[in-house]
Specification:
The complex is a heterotrimer. By secondary structure, chain A is mostly helical. Chain A has helices at 3-10, 13-29, 34-46, 49-74, 82-99, 106-131, 137-157, 190-209, 211-221, 223-228, 233-259, 271-282, 289-310, 315-341. Chain A has a domain at 58-302: Orthogonal Bundle (ABC transporter involved in vitamin B12 uptake, BtuC), CATH 1.10.3470. Chain B is α/β, with parallel strands linked by helices. Chain B is 36% helix and 17% strand. The longest helix of chain B has 21 residues, at 2-22. Chain C contains 17 helices and 20 strands. Chain C is an alpha/beta fold. Chain C is globular and about 70 Å long. In chain C, α12 crosses α13. Chain C has 2 domains: 3-233, Rossmann fold, CATH 3.40.50.300; 250-483, 3-Layer(aba) Sandwich (Rossmann fold), CATH 3.40.50. The longest helix of chain C is centred in the middle third of the chain and has 18 residues, at 169-186. Helices cover 34% and strands 25% of the residues of chain C. At the A-B interface, α1, α2, α3, α4 and α7 of A face α1, β2 and α3 of B.
Chain lengths: 351, 402, 487
């Protein structure tokens, strides 16, 4: 292997290493040996079976939302409303779990479907605001995120509060058949892992082999050219956001039907925002999503142990992932710049 | 392209593997003489309120029990840490040698039971819960290695209500409530009963004339867009003619707004909550503060666990009446505020000593619920169960019961 | 301030925008910079104002070598440029814009600045309310504001790029008066970049002409329009005979059509294009010809009038409907509006063809793409990303994407930036289309091309369409006059 080839393979690791070094330095500053610190994180993430299960259980909704975001990012859309789409999916699933009674497995199937529909509709509102109201999807999404959270709070402190009075914590636990079947006494449902795999495969095939995926790609790279080539930007914008919303909503349903057993005050707690980071780190490649999302989940779970072992603030895990994303983006930019200066991206005269 | 992608994945995995190899240091085992205990907080350890009081209780144990080491985990709630679970945190604490874990919120009640079942050799304390109460609604839920601790804040709230009744000139007071549950209902009801007693016996006025309004904002602190804005609620109290505001929430809006009104020349008072230094915000209008002091109960528990003599109990710990500010002895406390006049203070001291001696019993019939249903018959003294599980607000109080 | 440019070169890829230009400008003089589109005027001025850096060559100000890495640095050295679109911040007040660029001070002295601004404005005869928001000001007022700002920051050399586009006649008079005053009384060096020969003759002392990236000559005003046109467009094109495929049928009929762009209103367009006709439009950039194509493509909706395509009323058709009605539009910006940078040729072909089913048959499209690559002689492979193609190959790719058959082909600058052979080849492709019965409506900045390739030609000037001339009976010279608004 030539040196250049080795360098090309090594390149993706550089930002990761820099992020680790920066976090390590922070550990030293706070008087913790990086060895002990990272060791604690590793043990927290993979120390025993229950930890691995916990990391995996947290990974599922994160991966689902991230896979959805690959679709909307491909279309050039900043679907920051993914957080609200998770929440609204959780609410829809909870609605069916609390208020309806279907026989056997239909119950959970309908809950998941309802969550996907609700997420898609919620995203559709953002899309509609964008295409018709000229409200940028970032602002529409943020507003709808808040609305979804306020709606949750209203439900758990109002109409859906437990009979003994609202503690503001959540609704009563759902009946067992309204929950996803769990592995042992963990919070992980094997079915939810299948959902992630299915989502990855479907999105991979869609983006690779379908007209729709091609249109989204064109739309994301150059809306005006895509328009002139015959892509209906309004329709594809709405569909891309709704597709993402459906997967995010499914993530929300997994959150209430396996991680929790009821609708809680903060059902997502920022998983959507985390998913945005995951997708940026992946450079929009869907096959990378499960791995990066797993890395995030492991780091976050590991930092719980880090906090307990070192009594440092557990935001260190957040710092690690944040620095990592920054580094990857920075290095991506550098690569872009380098290519630009080599003249591979041709610039044009002005007239 | 594919090579490139795979390279990235391979590297993430490799780095993890390298880390694993480099960091495979043995787990830090607790030395045998060390007593390790965990404290799990729902909020930050420096919130000047509920969570900080528990954290300081833990520090008190560390100071007074030789060899004691606390592992604290703060902000365990799905909004701050969506990835964290009580079970996971307990796993880690136990792995570090903790033999006592204190979970400090009723939010943790269910999960504490689960953790206690998982680790039968570890003692669990859920503060403010009732799962270990043999006469409680959830009797039998907690395994034998789980206990509950709570302070009798009701007495302190009665003192707060009394102070308000002694100070008020309009006869109207407002209670800034958080969210509605058994705990918050019985606390505001205690304050109301204290106010009635003092209004009648020290002021010589008819207690039925007291205007006592409870407004629930919806949570322990202000969440814009979600809860009512406490500032506006308190302003509303004063606009409605009240001149004393009693706070039941974690933050300081009550005394802040009262202070602003006082600065404009109005004669108003406030009773903050939860934090011993609550009066500092505006001392001259502060009638006093009721607060929790978890240290003594936690120390006793830690000592018992350490000595192997701990047995399951549900402790609703009384104050140390001789000195309500004695941090070594009292479980709940009351600090007089600078806003009390000498006359008010004399009456208040009399009320406190009456409560201490048992001469004054505020939870004594006849007491009706808000809808008029008789709750305690003439002369009947409420049982712990009747106070703890107060189903509604009391007759004479305004505000929603559920 | 004396300005000297020595052997300035600036290449964009293969395009030699400035190819060794040397000029000397004296202070107190007003220069007009002329040249056809693509002659390199804007590039040269952007180099002088620090927006671009030259590949080689020197800039001297008062005999001192200078190098600018940004417009701010150029301004600090006394060179300021007013762009066609004033570079102000619309949501801010006039006085705030006036203060822009003085970023060394932390404390902005608004009241002092306001009175300073009013005083400077009155000296030049301008009236701008310092508290007005930018977006409430007219283009002319924004130019005045920009001029004041540059002067306040010490500009000694002023470059004005097409300053009279979109301003009223009265404002133009005011602007010219103030420019004369600045040059003659304050000794500023002024460069006016303009296509409007009449304005150059009215305002300037000297005219500098660029052609294809080179400086071709300087004349003093007064000077005849004929002479200027000749200098700009250089050689008179050789007349080549071409076959006409004109048919009897009227394909496109516009009657009394009115439409509006951002700055320009076009009214009273009456135009008939016959089947098999090549209809050329001349005109300086932004004179209305692009709007006409966009209106015919369904990209802008006419305010009034009627558009008939092949007997069908298509006045209210959207772009996608027009597309379905066999109308194709090829915009000038290949990578901006035509192709999608980052997508491959094969992906473009798949996008442009009518969709069949849900799944893309990549094997099929690979074959199609390869055959198109062969047919259109594109240097590239099916999986080549379009932005990696050269300009000429991008243009070929655009043609390769066109559907067949087509009724009407709307083209902008079909051969801009292409060498002679490529241009010849593109026209052969177009003529094949015409032979099949398609009509072509196009505009070009190249007058020779218009004369040589079209059946009939009309010129646009300030939103007004001239009389229609027959290509075989006209000359580039006559077109030059029509472009200048002369009848």
């Amino acid at each position: 292997m030539s040196l250049g080839r080795i360098a090309r393979y090594l390149w993706p690791a550089v930002p990761v290493l820099i992020a680790l070094v920066i976090t390590g330095l922070l550990l030293v500053v706070f008087g913790v040996s990086p060895q002990a610190g990272f060791g604690a994180m590793l043990r927290g993430a993979f120390g025993d079976q229950s930890r691995v299960l916990s990391v995996t259980a947290f990974w599922v909704p994160l991966a689902l939302a991230s896979v959805g975001l690959v679709v909307s990012f491909t279309a050039g859309l900043w679907n920051i409303g993914v957080e609200g789409q998770i929440v609204i999916g959780a609410i829809a699933a909870s609605w069916l779990a609390l208020k309806f009674n279907f026989s056997g497995p239909l119950q959970i199937i309908f809950e998941l479907l309802a969550a996907m529909i609700a997420g898609a509709i919620w995203a559709g509102v953002t899309a509609f605001l964008k295409t018709r109201g000229k409200v940028h999807e970032i602002f529409g999404g943020l507003a709808l995120n808040n609305l979804a959270i306020i709606f949750t709070n209203y439900l758990i402190s109002g109409p859906w509060q437990p009979p003994e009075g609202g503690t503001f914590r959540g609704t009563v636990p759902f009946p067992t058949k309204a929950l996803l079947p769990l592995y042992g006494d963990s919070r992980l449902s094997p079915i939810s892992v299948v959902m992630v795999i299915a989502a990855v495969v479907i999105v991979f095939l869609l983006l690779r082999g379908s007209y729709w995926g091609l249109k989204l790609k064109a739309l994301g790279k150059n809306p005006s050219s895509a328009f002139l080539l015959g892509v209906s930007s309004e329709r594809e914008t709405i569909l891309a956001l709704m597709f993402c919303g459906a997967l995010a909503g499914l993530g929300g349903a997994v959150r209430v039907t396996s991680w929790f057993d009821s609708l809680r005050q903060s059902i997502s707690g920022g998983i959507g925002y985390l998913a945005l980071l995951v997708v940026m780190l992946s450079a929009f490649r869907v096959l990378l999503i499960p791995f990066i999302a797993y890395f995030f989940s492991a780091v976050l779970n590991g930092s719980i142990t880090l906090q307990l072992r070192t009594q440092l603030h557990s935001s260190l895990g957040g710092i690690l992932t944040g620095v990592l994303v920054l580094m990857v983006l920075l290095f991506g930019e550098l690569r872009q710049l380098k290519r630009f200066s080599e003249g591979r991206v041709s610039s044009r005269p002005d007239e | 392209m594919l090579h490139f992608k795979m390279g990235r994945v391979v590297f993430l995995v490799t780095i993890f593997a390298l880390l694993a190899a480099a960091c495979g240091a043995p787990a830090t085992e607790a030395p045998p003489e060390e007593f390790v205990f965990g404290v799990i907080l729902v909020g930050p350890k420096n919130d000047r309120g509920w969570s900080q009081a528990h954290y300081e209780g833990g520090l008190y144990v560390e100071e007074n029990l030789p060899g004691a080491r606390m592992i604290v985990f703060e902000s365990l709630n799905p909004a701050d840490k969506p990835e964290a679970t009580l079970e996971g945190v307990v796993d880690d604490m136990v792995a570090q040698g903790a033999t006592l874990v204190i979970t400090t919120s009723d939010e943790f009640e269910e999960d504490t039971v689960g953790a206690a079942n998982k680790y039968p050799d570890v003692t669990f304390i859920n503060a403010s819960g009732d799962d270990a109460w043999s006469e409680g609604m959830d009797a039998g839920v907690a395994p034998s290695n789980e206990g509950n601790i709570m302070g009798r804040m009701e007495d302190m709230k009665a003192i707060a209500g009394c102070a308000a009744a002694l100070a008020t000139e309009t006869g109207k007071m407002g209670y800034l409530g958080p969210l509605i549950n058994f705990e918050t209902r019985r606390l505001t009801a205690s304050a109301y009963l204290g106010a009635r007693y003092c209004y009648e016996n020290y002021r010589g006025l008819n207690p039925d004339d007291i205007g006592y309004t409870v407004t629930w904002i919806g949570f322990w602190f202000n969440i814009p867009g979600v809860t009512l804005d406490p500032t506006e609620v308190v302003t509303g109290f004063f606009d409605g003619g009240a001149d004393v505001v009693l706070s039941g929430i974690d933050t300081t809006e009550g005394i802040v707004v009262a202070g602003q009104n006082a600065d404009q020349g109005e004669k108003v008072w406030a009773v903050p909550y939860d934090y011993e230094g609550g009066c500092e915000e505006k001392p001259e209008i502060c009638l006093g503060v009721p607060f929790f002091n978890w240290g003594p109960a936690y120390l006793a528990t830690a000592q018992a666990v350490s000595a192997g003599t701990w047995t399951q109990s549900w402790d609703w710990n009384p104050p140390y009446w001789d000195d309500l500010t004695d941090e070594v002895k009292t479980n709940v406390g009351w600090v007089d505020g600078p806003g009390l006049t000498a006359e008010m203070k004399a009456h208040l001291d009399d009320f406190i000593s009456g409560l201490a001696s048992g001469d004054i019993v505020i939870w004594k019939g006849p007491i009706n619920l808000q809808d008029g249903t008789p709750y305690l018959a003439e002369g009947e003294i409420a049982s712990d169960n009747q106070i703890w599980y107060l189903p509604k607000l009391l007759e004479g109080m305004e505000g929603s019961s559920e | 301030m004396k300005v000297a440019l020595r052997d300035i070169r600036k290449y964009f890829g293969q395009v030699k925008a400035n190819d060794g230009i040397s000029l000397v400008l004296e202070s107190g003089q007003i220069y007009g910079l002329l040249g056809e589109n693509g002659a390199g005027k804007s590039t040269l001025m952007k180099i002088l104002s620090g927006y671009h850096q030259p590949d080689s060559g020197q800039i001297e100000l008062d005999d001192k070598d200078v190098k600018f890495s940004s417009p701010a640095e150029a301004l600090a050295n006394g060179v300021g440029m007013i762009y066609q679109d004033p570079l102000d911040v619309p949501s801010m007040r006039a006085v705030e814009n006036y203060l822009l660029g003085r970023d060394l001070r932390i404390n902005l002295a608004y009241s002092a600045a306001t009175s300073e601004m009013i005083e400077n404005a009155s000296q030049l005869g301008f009236k701008i309310d310092p508290q007005a928001f930018i977006d409430t000001l007219s283009i002319g007022e924004r130019q005045q504001l920009e001029l004041l700002r540059l002067l306040a920051l010490g500009a000694e050399v002023l470059i004005l790029d097409e300053p009279t586009t979109g301003i009223s006649a009265e404002q133009k008079e005011g602007l010219f008066a103030s420019i004369r005053k600045l040059a003659k009384e304050s000794g500023k060096t002024v460069i006016l970049v303009s296509h409007k020969l009449s304005e150059v003759q009215e305002l300037c002392d000297h005219v500098l002409v660029l052609c294809k990236g080179k400086f071709v000559g300087e004349v003093d005003i007064p000077c005849s329009t004929e002479r200027l046109v000749q200098m700009m467009f250089k050689e008179i094109p050789p007349r080549s005979s071409r076959v006409s495929y004109l048919r009897e049928k009227n394909l496109l009929e516009l009657s009394q059509v009115e439409f509006e762009g951002e700055r320009l209103a076009v009214t009273g367009i009456n135009l008939t294009v016959r089947a098999g006709e090549v209809f050329g439009l001349a005109g300086l950039e932004g004179s209305g010809q692009k709007l006409l194509l966009q209106a015919c493509a369904g990209l802008i909706q006419p305010k009034r009038g009627k558009i008939i395509l092949d007997g069908e009323d298509v006045t209210r058709f959207s772009y996608h409907q027009m597309r379905a009605a066999s109308v194709a539009y090829l915009p000038a910006g290949r990578l901006e509006e035509g192709l999608v940078a980052g997508l491959s040729l094969i992906e473009h072909v798949a996008l442009a063809r009518p969709q069949k089913g849900f799944v893309v048959d990549w094997n099929y499209f690979e074959r199609i793409t390869q055959s198109q690559i062969d047919k259109y002689q594109i240097v590239g492979r099916p999986e080549t990303l379009v932005h990696e193609l050269s300009g000429g190959n991008q243009q070929r790719a655009l043609f390769a994407l066109l559907r067949s058959p087509l009724k009407l082909l709307l083209l902008e600058h079909p051969t801009r930036g292409l060498d002679v052979l490529s241009a010849q080849w593109i026209w052969q492709l177009l003529l094949n289309r015409v032979e099949e019965g398609s009509s072509i409506l196009y505009y070009s900045a190249d007058l020779d091309e218009l004369v040589e390739r079209s059946d009939r030609i009309a010129a646009f000037s300030g939103g007004v369409m001239s009389r229609i001339v027959t290509a075989t009976e006209t000359t580039a010279d006559e077109l030059g006059h029509l472009i200048g608004g002369e009848e």
